[in-house]
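Progress note, sequence design subtask.
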């Protein structure tokens, strides 16, 4: 009987060198090693306090230490016990300060400064050597100055503070305190003869009560009540204007020029195009007749009636063929025309007419707000205006040269011609630095024209804070919108609230620098600011989904689209195609609030000379009253998220310049990189990353995507200078 062989399990052969090599164990300090050293330093400090300060008997050791310290350090030795106790306490508490080189250097510099300040008579051996050497070179006054500077430098190194930050924060604190004390000064007492109605009452004919009701009239007048005016709880951004509106006169409308009269398309040309259009459709099997045409400043619309059984989509599919047959550039097909049983074909005119603001600027209805503006002429040549207060926000998009900046100039010029600074205040954000510079001296501005992305983010946050303050005021007077609140404030004799128009000329640049913060502010304003009179005009030349996000589109229903490069961009702006077929130079599609119907307009044009003359008339009547604090981030008390940081200046850190250098040289930005290169903890590294984002050096947080470095090495010197 054969024996069953025992199966062996084969194991992979491993070289002996690999198996016998042992992993070296790194010798690490004990977990409680710093605490033990700290306890020892605290004990030594307490012992020296008892010997040096209290005069207790320290034995032989205490006597040797006292004599040695007095000989070496002199009177500066009295500060040694406190220094040992503080450093020991920090080590016991495991503070990061004792591991930072500037802290240890600061302690040494303070010691040297003490010995220099005390001089060679009281500074011991070190004081004699240092004071004597410097005394020969600088004299007694120079030694004292060097000693004081050493004490200040040591204090800055120990605390980690910045002299510039301290001066700036103290200056701002003094400025705010002076302004608040001036505004909160005790007002004079006023006489209130009776209750004031919250809402104005209709004026009735005057009644002679003395003659008609003699029994109800008393001979003696009641004594008036003396009460002080109510002190405002929180200052609004608009408590800066005190002049009445009577001292301001609107600019002269005669400044606006009118366009030269144009002939427009003649009848023969229109008939020839209509015949060619019908013949081209017949060649592709579409039976249609031209039942009408409408000629506008830029395009002519031909209205076609199709034969029964012909699909409308068949005409829309022949767009390129019609463009080829008619030898034209851009064709827009409306299949069908909204509200009509016809298909529209819009063709550009061979000789377009110019539309200026002077052609359309006329009187508006009494129900219009101070934010009513003119836009241009529609396809039938009728002037079109809209009210920004009812829109309530508008999104403008288009490529370079399509007329986007001209539309913004038309909107701003219309507001300047119709409203005083008491009615409308403006905040202009222009990252491109060239488009809105014409308006930098108008009295309507609430802040200087903002060009820095960092300042733009701070301004938007301050506008959000102003929105919340206005809602508190509306709640106090029980009003639902700004006109009702102003009527109530006017009946009380209080200052009215003006409209606030915020214009952002290039939203894409702000979204590239800090997308999350800018989007949050824009969304909050778009959702809630209509009732309190704050309205947005957002413009961009890059209509992509990462700039015009879904939340922004949902809260900004009114849109203006100029010529774009693709149908995808048109759908981002208007939620439908059409803007890719526009002609540029002011040719636009306007989608107002509450409708999906697009209105084709030719935008009004305003020249630079007209803008300059209007601005000059506005500037000559009233001085600017700008609020520079809008360019700074809101106070920590206004932002609950930052309340835990106390008085910490978010843009001052001794390692900020090194962090900028590391990020620019490596072209990479992450918290772990800052931790490794600068040897700091996670919290401080994260704070440095936030500082870099606020300064516009790196992009904002984009989820799983890495942050992009927006500054090259060639711009490093410029960034450090800022």
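Output:
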């Amino acid at each position: 009987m054969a024996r069953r062989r025992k199966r062996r399990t084969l194991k992979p052969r491993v070289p002996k060198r690999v198996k016998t090599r042992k992993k070296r164990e790194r010798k690490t300090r004990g977990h409680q090693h710093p605490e033990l050293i700290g306890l020892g330093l605290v004990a030594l400090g307490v012992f020296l306090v008892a010997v040096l300060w209290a005069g207790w008997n320290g034995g032989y050791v205490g006597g040797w230490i006292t004599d040695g310290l007095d000989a070496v350090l002199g009177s500066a030795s009295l500060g040694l016990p406190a220094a040992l106790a503080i450093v020991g306490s920090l080590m016991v508490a495991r503070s990061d300060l004792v591991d930072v080189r500037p802290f240890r250097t600061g302690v040494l510099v303070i010691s040297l400064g003490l010995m220099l300040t005390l001089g060679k008579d009281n500074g011991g051996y070190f004081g004699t050597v240092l004071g004597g050497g410097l005394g020969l070179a600088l004299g007694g006054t120079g030694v004292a100055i060097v000693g004081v500077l050493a004490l200040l430098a040591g204090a800055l190194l120990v605390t980690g503070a910045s002299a510039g930050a301290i001066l700036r924060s103290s200056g701002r604190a003094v400025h705010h305190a002076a302004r608040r004390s001036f505004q909160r000064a005790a007002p004079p007492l006023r006489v209130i003869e009776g209750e004031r109605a919250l809402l104005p009452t209709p004026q009735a004919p005057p009644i002679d009560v003395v003659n008609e009701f003699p029994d109800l009239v008393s001979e003696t007048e009641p004594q008036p009540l003396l009460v002080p005016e109510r002190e405002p709880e929180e200052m609004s951004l608009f408590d800066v204007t005190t002049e009445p509106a009577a001292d301001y006169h609107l600019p002269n409308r005669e400044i606006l020029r009118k366009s030269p009269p144009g002939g427009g398309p003649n009848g023969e040309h229109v008939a020839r195009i209509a015949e060619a259009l019908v013949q081209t459709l017949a060649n592709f099997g579409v039976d249609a007749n031209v039942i009408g045409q409408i000629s506008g400043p830029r395009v002519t619309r031909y209205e076609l009636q199709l034969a029964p059984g012909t699909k409308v989509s068949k005409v829309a599919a022949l767009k390129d063929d019609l463009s080829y047959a008619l030898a034209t550039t851009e064709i827009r097909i409306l299949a069908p025309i909204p509200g009509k049983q016809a298909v529209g074909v819009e063709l550009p005119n061979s000789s377009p007419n110019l539309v200026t603001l002077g052609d359309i600027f006329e009187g508006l209805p009494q129900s219009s707000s101070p934010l009513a503006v003119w836009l241009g002429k529609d396809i039938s040549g009728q002037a079109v205006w809209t009210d920004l207060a009812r829109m309530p926000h508008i999104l403008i998009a288009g490529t370079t040269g399509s007329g986007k900046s001209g539309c913004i100039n038309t909107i701003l010029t219309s507001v300047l011609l119709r409203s005083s600074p008491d009615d409308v205040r403006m905040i202009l954000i222009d990252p491109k630095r060239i488009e809105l510079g014409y308006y930098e001296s108008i009295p309507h501005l609430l802040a200087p024209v903002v060009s820095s992305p960092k300042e733009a983010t701070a301004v938007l946050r301050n506008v959000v804070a102003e929105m919340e303050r206005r809602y508190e005021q509306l709640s106090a007077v029980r009003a639902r919108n700004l006109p009702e609140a102003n009527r109530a404030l006017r009946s009380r004799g209080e200052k009215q609230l003006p409209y606030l128009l915020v214009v952002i000329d290039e939203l894409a640049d702000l979204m590239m620098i800090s997308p999350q913060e800018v989007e949050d502010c824009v969304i909050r304003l778009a959702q809630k600011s209509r009732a309190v009179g704050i309205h947005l005009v957002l413009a961009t030349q890059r209509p992509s989904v990462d700039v015009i996000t879904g939340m922004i589109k949902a809260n900004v229903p009114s849109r203006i689209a100029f010529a774009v490069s693709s149908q995808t961009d048109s759908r981002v702006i208007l939620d439908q195609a059409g803007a890719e077929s526009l002609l540029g130079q002011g040719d636009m599609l306007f989608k107002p609030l509450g409708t999906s119907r697009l209105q084709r307009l030719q935008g009004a044009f305003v020249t630079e000379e007209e803008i300059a003359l209007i601005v000059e008339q506005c500037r000559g009547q009233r001085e600017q009253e700008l609020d520079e604090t809008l360019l700074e981030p809101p106070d920590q008390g206004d932002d609950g998220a930052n309340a835990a940081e106390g008085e910490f200046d978010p843009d001052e850190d001794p390692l900020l310049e090194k962090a900028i250098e590391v990020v620019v040289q490596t072209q990479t930005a992450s918290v772990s990189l800052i931790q490794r290169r600068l040897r700091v903890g996670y919290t401080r590294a994260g704070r440095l990353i936030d500082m870099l984002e606020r300064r516009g050096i790196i992009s904002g947080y984009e989820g799983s995507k890495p942050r992009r470095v927006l500054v090259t090495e060639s711009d490093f010197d410029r960034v450090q200078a800022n």
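The radius of gyration is 38 Å. Work on this subtask will continue into the next period as scheduled.
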